[in-house]
Request: fold
Amino acid sequence: MLSFQIVIPAPFMTLDEYSRHSGMPKSTLKDWAAQGKLILKKKDLPKETPLVNVIAMQELATREALSYLG
Reply:
């Protein structure tokens, strides 16, 4: 059994920060957010900056990995 630890730098990140950490272009992340592929924190006000829920994205990735690995 493999064991590893993932360090999450922050529970929420702006699209710019998430782009830098993930290596994905910001335009791709915007497209994914519009398609519902990126989990964003719910905004209280319309003009708030969208924030990626990094913990939820990590949970999604973990579940997909476990499903793939069996």
